[in-house]
Write a structure and sequence with these properties.
4-stranded antiparallel beta sheet; single chain; about 270 residues; 5-stranded antiparallel beta sheet; about 25% strand; alpha+beta
Length: about 270
């Protein structure tokens, strides 16, 4: 059952998404060699609470932390620890926040210091695939259109698309219907309608698409130990088209990056 959102509900979802966006922007300035994920996790929890929200992941399904922090060959669901980040690492930071009864949930894969060119390309292509998928999230299209766009682009660069983990509907629950796989066939699956809100999140591996899980019951790794990238946005269908609720602009401001990648999906300006 898909929960169609009213204009007011989409506004509340945008508020929650922006809590996460600002949290990731704050973390962007802190992610550097020598810093550990547990320290960043504590910063994020305090920051989220200071914005009048609650950490969305903390305690959910018994997860012990505020952030999923997944370096290098970890795909998603990494548990923050005290191991310091190293020059050349990458780390996916997946963050959730609950405010006014609605969830925000999105992710960004950060470079730690100077990263190898082939890893930079993995991050770039995966993030580009996210926007290709978002472009297909509109009235009249289907779930398979989003998955096909992401899969086709990443696989054309030789990357493996994770299939066991998918995007999802979003709202008063963190995980709602429909599931949004990062693979699929055009014209297949549930049809999109006005007022739908989802999290689209490609996970792309430099090598095989296959994964394995650590004994901690959470951490997902690439089966071949090669790096993985993960990017996620929250999107609603407004006026028949995809409207971004989240933004990477706070990250880009912290890192001094100029980008207009979100412009076509922004009917409403981000409020600082």
């Amino acid at each position: 059952m898909v929960n169609i959102k009213s204009t007011e509900e989409i506004g509340l979802m945008r508020e929650s998404a922006l809590v996460v966006s600002k949290t990731l922007g704050m973390l962007a300035a802190e992610i550097k060699p020598g810093v550990n994920a547990l320290y960043l996790d504590k910063l994020a929890e305090e920051f989220i609470r200071d914005q009048g929200a609650e950490p969305g992941f903390l305690g959910m399904y018994d997860f012990p932390n505020t952030l999923n922090m997944s370096p290098n060959a970890q795909v998603v669901h990494g548990i923050p620890n005290k191991e310091p980040l190293k020059e050349g690492d990458i780390i996916s930071v997946d963050c959730g926040a609950l405010k006014n009864g609605y969830y925000g949930d999105h992710a960004y894969t950060f470079e730690v210091g100077e990263v190898a060119p082939e890893v930079k390309k993995l991050l770039r292509v995966t993030k580009e695939s996210l926007y290709l998928g978002i472009r297909e999230f509109k009235v009249g299209n289907r779930v398979g259109d989003v998955g096909y766009a992401i899969q086709n682009y990443c696989e054309s660069h030789g990357y493996g698309i994770v299939r066991e983990l998918v995007g999802h509907g979003l709202g008063q629950k963190l995980h709602e219907s429909p599931e949004i796989p990062n693979y699929g066939k055009r014209g297949r699956g549930k049809r999109f309608a006005a007022g739908m809100g989802v999290a689209i999140e490609p996970m792309s591996n430099m090598g095989t698409r296959h994964i394995k899980q650590l004994r901690d019951g959470w951490t997902i790794l690439t089966a071949d130990g090669q790096p993985s990238a993960h990017f996620e946005h929250n999107v609603a269908i407004v006026n028949g088209k995809p409207e971004l609720l989240s933004t990477f602009q706070y990250i880009y401001e912290a890192l001094g990056i100029q980008s207009d990648e979100e412009q076509e999906f922004r009917q409403k300006k981000v409020v600082s």
